[in-house]
Amino acid sequence: TPSLRSLPTEPDTSGMKTTEGRGSTLGRKGSVWTTRSMHTTGTTSAFANGAPLTGPNAEPDVDESLFARGAKAERVLSQKQKDRIEKEERKESKKFSKLLKTDSTNEKVALDSALKNLSALQGLHKAAIKRETKVEASYARALSGAQKAESRFQEEKARTAEVRARAEAHCIEERARWEGKEGELRAQQERLESAKEAVIDTEARISECAREVERLRIVKATDEREREAKLIELTGQK
Fold it and tell me: What is the pTM of this model?
């Protein structure tokens, strides 16, 4: 007849071994992740700290004296009473197994959401690159126009040294045109710098999101293994 200490234990990450004297519902609480909040970029926070049913935060904090109390009470039970309790515990294990399967499905949904968000960010990145290309073309045209205007101004200025009175009006006109082109160049340069900053910012967000997705994939892989080990432990079937 199984005793209180022989109840299924929580999966152990060091080798999937059970710890004597620690039941599935009366196990001692081990180390728990203290970082509750994690900075993410548009990704889901679900399962970020592991599966809620089998992860490190699922381990209960139970006083060791409960095992002694359970063992003492079990010694005075009849076989019929023990069989009835064990039957109820098997029913609870089956119910928990169903919850584990639902937990697995939810984690897959969370990962799929993170992957979709990453895809959306890549779309924004592509659009930002296209905008940068267009602005660069506009900047090149503005630069060429400003350089040509400046060249004409300098040539005209040299001529006015000989015929200042006659060319003064034309020189002023060319200067105004050059200054206008310079203003356009500055405006295009500001747009180019803004577009480049947008690209850099988007790439940084993509890198951060990619790291988060990769971390979620690693956590999910660990959770799947812990979940399967838990199912084997609860159902006794491999």
Answer: 0.39
